[in-house]
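Researcher: Can you fold this with adenosine-5'-triphosphate in place?
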Amino acid sequence: MVLAQTTKEQQQEAKTPLLKLHNVKKYFPIKGGLLKRVQGHVKAVESVSFELMEGESLGVVGESGCGKSTLGRTILGLEEITDGQVYYRDQEIQNLKRHEKKKFVKEMQMIFQDPYASLNPRQRVGDALVEVFSMHTNLSAKEKRDGVVDLLKEVGLKEEHFDRYPHEFSGGQRQRIGIARAIALNPSFIICDEAVSALDVSVQAQVLKLLKTIQEKYNLSYLFISHDLGVVRYFCDRVLVMYLGNSVELAKVEELFETPLHPYTQALLSAIPRPSVHANVKRVSLQGDLPNPANPPSGCPFHTRCPIAQDVCVQSKPEWQEYQPEHFAACHFAGKSILEGADV
Ligand SMILES: Nc1ncnc2c1ncn2[C@@H]1O[C@H](COP(=O)(O)OP(=O)(O)OP(=O)(O)O)[C@@H](O)[C@H]1O
């Protein structure tokens, strides 16, 4: 309903950023030779900037290998940042001392694609969740058990699931356990890294609904990493598009899908399967593979595959600019249609 959407937008405008990234970089050294000397770097995240509001879902999309997971891990401090700043509630959080980090560990959590990989197959699920409380709280044994039972119910499971082992759960139920673990310590921010990608479509819908319910209840902010643009369109308020470690476009979800400014975003959207009534929509297939992030192209990182690239794109890297209110892109020809130069 239009009225409800407007209200949500107004609420969001009044909110303050929970998380702010400024030119974040993450390089991994490539070591070789007998002496294991550093011979170069994989530039997994080259330059990413955005703000995430309280209660907001920001989608992060882009091809496999464009740096989405590394970005998430760097925000959480699981990877040491190479350059740039990450602010959480206006405090710079990279390079914090161990004891200072502890409070942020509770506030910031992650849900992974494969919760099974992070569950011990020989440990009862209830005990695994109790451990989360043991590490971060001084609750009594009974309080911890009661807390876990409440958590299980909150994510749509039952008390009897406490004593079961991970292999006794379906994929959707395991992801509910992953969600229970993520919300146990009352976080404000959760990174969902391909959290529903491995699930069947109907189970996906249920898990997305659960994520939305707990978001509204606890005013959670999500960074929602996904390769599925359909899911992102349904779930997120805004979308960040990444290419070869760079943020190339950021906009409100409807605006991004209706008027993509960056040629890479246009190509991604044109590749979404459409119902036959839209069969006349032209598809643009990108030529060539994603370049090697250890040896990225000069100038615009997308120029080697861009159908509308000109000399300037080879020579200089386009700046990240706000073209419309809250609609950012990094392209010398932002807004120009790729159909003007593509093999369609
Ligand atoms: N620990 C690491 N050491 C060296 N290179 C790494 C490391 N982690 C990631 N990379 C490289 O960084 C780049 C970005 O990887 P990342 O996993 O962040 O991409 P992604 O967009 O999340 O991809 P996917 O959707 O496949 O998970 C890739 O080239 C990857 O090989």
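Model: Folded with adenosine-5'-triphosphate in place. The chain has a mean pLDDT of 90.
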